[in-house]
């Protein structure tokens, strides 16, 4: 039986780890925006 390789998360656009080429350092990927006061509750 041939075993299928799992999709590479970098290339799989349904993966939560996929970063689109149009995304950049200024893209907001977490809402609400993390600040010093709300970071501890998020982490």
From TrEMBL:
Pfam families: Retrotran_gag_3 (PF14244). This is Retrotransposon Copia-like N-terminal domain-containing protein. Residues 20-43 form the Retrotransposon Copia-like N-terminal domain.
